[in-house]
Design brief:
about 475 residues, alpha+beta, 6-stranded antiparallel beta sheet, 3-stranded antiparallel beta sheet, 13 strands
Amino acid sequence: MTVDGDRTTVAERVARGKAARATVPRASHADWKVLPNRVSPITLLEEQATTRVPELVPIRHGRMLVSPFTYYRGAALPMASDLADTPTSGIRVQACGDAHLSNFGMFGSPERHLFFDVNDFDETAPGPWEWDVKRLAASLEIAGRDHDFSAKRRAAIVQCSVRAYREAMRDFAASSMLDVWYSRLDMDELLPRFRALLDPRRTPSVWNAIAKARAHDSHQAFDKLCSVVAGSPRFRHDPPLIVPLDDSATAADAALVTTALQRIFDAYRRTLDPDRRRLVDQYRVEHLARKVVGVGSVGTEAWIVLLLDRTHGTPLLLQIKQAEASVLERYTAKSAFANHGHRVVAGQRLMQAASDIFLGWERFPSEGDAARDYYLRQLRDWKGSADIAGMTAAGMALWAEMCGWTLARAHARSGDRVAIASYLGKSDVFDRAIAEFSAAYADQNDKDYAALQDAVKSGRLTAHTGV
């Protein structure tokens, strides 16, 4: 019997997982040590700055300086460099590449259900499944330290997430591929294991995120970001975070950028399915602005586009975001996609239970500069993420379990779920190993955060805080 288009049998895939366990013991994942040839994270941040908008790079550094956790959010490349020297089973999946706990949350499906899923794919690429698990687990340890949770409590939270991943992967290994594909965490029909934990008193941050997510749509974004000027809706001027095109360039330059972005938008339409292309055609482009987003993404080009329904004038807000090479690529393999926007979209569609109906990509060839790749999506569509700073220990444990289950589902769609489940086994050996790794890597993260502080104090890096 063959499965999943593979010529190997289920028994052979189980054997593959067990063989990998013999070669790379699960307990070996606890190891973390700094190698003599480790590249400085500051050097890696400087490398990334060379391809980013110069005036925005200090904002990125400033956001990373807020805490060890915000540093970690922006340090996907340094961690990828570190993970490249850690043990792996040799089983690959479509990896998120930046699977920290803030990159999970709620969003609206095309059928208007509220799902919990991975929600950031800038770094997605094929890679070891362990790298995503370790990035998620270490983020929980670091966030727990920010909350002054005890070491015992932090270890329990990390193990909660890894156990959810391991048990979910075993469930998916016993399921058909179609059942795996249809699996999703619907916030209206929570799995019993999560419904029992969800409580407005014990887990207020998660409860509030679910309650508020549906309010986060284009109308809410319009009210927050736009105002009516001389009878026409326009993005508000809020530099340096939001800069309307009219305010950031001369009239001639603005016309050129408008024309360029219109070309990107027109070409993007061709990446959509015919029905969604028809939907987009019912809108016209009204206004453009540059918007600073996230932590790690700050400095890449990101634009927000205001579109109006041609019939009723109702708003739709899209984001045009630059896509660079995944941080995983220099440690794995060059992307199979010629366009990194396409890479992001393909990875998102493969990993998510359901994706934004406006998701598409395009490339803009700049004269005298290297071509830039972009992907487009809705700016907000029932999007919601829990307030990490306001999480109780119970709330973080619940979030950790939801993230672990969701990451396993995403990996099971693209990787050999049977071999991974066989490798993980029934015991908690892997769970405890990852908890040990997370504590050791959080210690390293503290040192790297201090190095960033020193680099700013010495003038090696420039940082703008408070933005």
